[in-house]
């Protein structure tokens, strides 16, 4: 290696050695400090202590004063969000309150209209007469129309009506359509159909025997609701008398059939 190269290498290594010596001296200054004579401390040591104290105060101030405030702000923002959501929900309900009231009135009107279609107890015989006239006008010949025992449900009373009649398909279809058009609610259940014996061969349309259970319903009043738990009201003498009174109307129905 030439002398010039050795000289350049020594120049490159000189600053790092100087820095190393400076750092060692800086650390030695901390070991030789006089705690009772702050004014005699080197300037570099004073600056280092000031910087350390400054960051220590910052950290301590953050945990003591700033962090609780930030936590309180976060809690307040969360509470604000909840209150805003609650306000929006209540505001939406308030805006739709009038619409809800109109819907409630409409539902109440529909409910009252449905109740009006349920026959009262005194209207059951006239309903049976309407069923009889409907069947006669449709071309059916009734064998029997019988009121069965009432069945009490939770809020209404079910009145089964057993109907036995004879007629062709067209007469039966017209009868069912006419029953659906009655102002009172009448439902049809338990259809039993069988062929009737042919008495003459004048018509090619088969005649059938029909057995149907129709059901009508009436609203249970407050008094009946209170007595609903009393079994004697359902199966007692009062029902037997009502059944007897129902049978009185059967002859009048058969007379209508003869007309």
UniProtKB/TrEMBL annotation:
Record InterPro entries: PilO (IPR007445), Transl_elong_EF1B/ribsomal_bS6 (IPR014717)
GO BP annotations listed: type IV pilus assembly; type IV pilus-dependent motility
Top-level taxon: Bacteria
Cited Pfam families: PilO
Name of the protein this chain belongs to: Pilus assembly protein PilO
Gene from which this protein is expressed: pilO
């Amino acid at each position: 290696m030439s002398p010039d190269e050795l000289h350049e290498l020594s120049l490159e290594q000189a600053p790092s050695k100087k820095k190393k010596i400076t750092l060692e001296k800086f650390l030695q200054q901390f070991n030789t400090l006089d705690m009772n004579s702050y004014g005699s401390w080197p300037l570099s040591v004073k600056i280092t202590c000031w910087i350390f104290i400054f960051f220590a105060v910052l950290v301590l101030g953050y945990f003591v004063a700033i962090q609780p405030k930030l936590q309180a702000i976060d809690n307040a923002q969360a509470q604000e969000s909840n209150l805003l959501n609650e306000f929006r929900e209540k505001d939406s309900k308030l805006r739709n309150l009038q619409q809800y009231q109109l819907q409630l009135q409409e539902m109440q009107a529909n409910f009252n209209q449905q109740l009006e279609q349920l026959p009262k107890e005194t209207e059951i015989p006239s309903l049976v007469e309407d069923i009889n006239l409907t069947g006669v006008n449709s071309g059916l010949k009734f064998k029997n129309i019988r009121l069965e025992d009432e069945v009490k449900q939770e809020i209404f009373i079910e009145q089964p009506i057993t109907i036995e009649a004879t007629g062709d398909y067209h007469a039966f279809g017209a009868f069912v359509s006419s029953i659906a058009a009655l102002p009172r609610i009448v439902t049809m259940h338990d259809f039993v159909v069988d062929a009737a014996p042919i008495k003459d061969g004048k018509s090619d349309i088969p005649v059938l025997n029909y057995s149907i259970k129709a059901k009508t319903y009436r609203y249970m009043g407050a008094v009946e609701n209170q007595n609903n738990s009393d079994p004697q009201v359902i199966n007692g003498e009062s029902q037997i008398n009502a059944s007897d009174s129902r049978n009185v109307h059967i002859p009048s129905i058969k007379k209508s059939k003869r007309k």
